[in-house]
Amino acid sequence: MPESSLPAELAELPQRELVARLVAVVEDNTRLREGNARLREVIEAQAVQLETARGQLQALTRRVEELERKAGKDSSNSGKPPSSDPVWDKKAAKEKKADRSLRVRGRRSPGKQPGAGSSTLKLVDDPDEMVWCRPGSCGGCGGDLSGEPVAAERRHQVTDIEPAAAPIVTEYRAQAKCCPGCGTTSVGELPLHVRARASYGPETHAQAANLIAHHIPVYRSTILLAQLGGISVSSGWMASVRGKAAALVASSGFMDHVAALLKTAAAVHVDETPARAGGGTRYVHLACTRYLTHLHTGDRSADAIDSGGVLPGYSGIIVRDGYKGYEHLADALHAWCAVHILRDLKALYDFEPAQQAWAQDMAGLLIEARDAAATARQDGATTLPEGVLADLLARYSDLADAGLAGNLYRRSATADDARRLARRFGKYQDLILRFVTRPDLDIFSNNEAERTIRPTKVQMRSSGGCWRTLQGLTEFALIQSYLSTAGKWGIDKLDALRRLFTGNAWLPPGLQPA
């Protein structure tokens, strides 16, 4: 290095010292480079940790939001049954005068309405027994009144039942006679319900099946039958009654008859619910109308849905929820239950009122469309006025677009659900608005199916949460189909069971009463 390029203070130093200083500088530079590399590694590691922490924070924020939404769900904004609502929540809602129901409150006051029929117990003109309560002596002076005429009287009647009478035992003797001409021995025919040497009659079977059909456990049913009917039976016999009734329903052709009627209906409500049976999970499948019920069991597959024999080839309207298991039924039109959608909209709006205002507006639009369809149906119209229909469809599309646009770039669990729901409104518009394009049919909700299938859950709760065998679940489906249909036609369960056990099973005469 030329001496002229060195600073003055270094140019005067001896070469040995200059070299030593240069070596020291190089070593310092090396140490600084190594320290810089270590710091760079620390910074990079911290950056990774920061990114990981940021991801964890986002995940935890999302999880907290999901848990808050889950905690805020009840029967008014989700598919949870009303029985799952905590008692303390119901009380708090009452104190705050919060309306948890999706129903629109009417103008009528609670209780009996003006002009409604009375159910007060009334006096009869021909009592079975009369008791005269005469005064024996005067309440003033104590004089004898036994021979005095009656000046006035006031009628009182007590209606009561007598203790159960002892069961009636009827003996049937099948007699044999020998023909003197050909020598053939002929035996008299016994009634259909007489087979064993000693057995219970049709009325006992009907009364026992009626207790079981009202979701009373087997042992308690035996106690009630003894107390109310005066006849004692074993728990094993009581448990066998359901199987006997189911066999009679199956052999009567009732299920095939109802399935054939349902295929002719303009709209059929369908649903499915899980049931624990035989140590596993099975499903009870339902197809019904206002007057018909058809239940069968299976898994949740398309083949199991079709095995009921109602929906394959059906060309009407299937009213259902959003379960994809019904999508293979392409011969029919499909209608989604709008009440399910209203609950989803309410759940969004309740959690984020400011960001999800579109959900409240969409719910209001669906209610408005429901009322318009109901008005058209009352007027006997099969379509809505063209202007009304066009306005509803345009506002529907605008609200669906607004819901998607407002949540498109937001990153949260609620925004994800909002985008999913908004896209669903666009993709499945025909299914969601089927009740608008067919106002002649009452298909706004699938409440008919949900009411009809609910006894499955009631039976589960009364029998320890499950059926011991798959056969028991199948028998329940058969009997419930029979009794539910009879009840929809105004026929008492006990009367329907009496007809069943006397060999004259009741069959619905048509799709609906004439």
Description of the structure:
Among the domains are: 202-247; 251-332 and 467-501, no CATH class; 338-437, no CATH class. Helices cover 49% and strands 8% of the residues. The protein has helices at 8-11, 15-71, 87-95, 202-213, 218-229, 235-251, 254-262, 302-306, 338-351, 357-378, 386-407, 413-427, 429-432, 434-437, 447-462, 470-488, 493-501; strands at residues 176-178, 185-187, 267-277, 280-288, 293-298, 317-320, 333-336. The strands form two sheets. The chain has a five-stranded mixed β-sheet with strand order 5-4-3-6-7. A hairpin with a 2-residue loop joins strand 3 and strand 4 (280-288).
Keywords:
alpha/beta; two-stranded antiparallel sheet; 17 helices; 7 strands
Low-confidence stretches: 94-100
Distance between the termini: 119 Å
Question: In percent terms, what proportion of residues is strand?
Answer: 5-15%
String of helices and strands: HHHEEHHHHEEEHEEHHHHHHHHH
Largest sheet data: 5 strands, mixed
What layout of secondary structure does this protein have?
Blueprint: H1 8-11, H2 15-71, H3 87-95, E1 176-178, E2 185-187, H4 202-213, H5 218-229, H6 235-251, H7 254-262, E3 267-277, E4 280-288, E5 293-298, H8 302-306, E6 317-320, E7 333-336, H9 338-351, H10 357-378, H11 386-407, H12 413-427, H13 429-432, H14 434-437, H15 447-462, H16 470-488, H17 493-501
Parallel strand pairs: 3-6, 6-7
Antiparallel strand pairs: 1-2, 3-4, 4-5
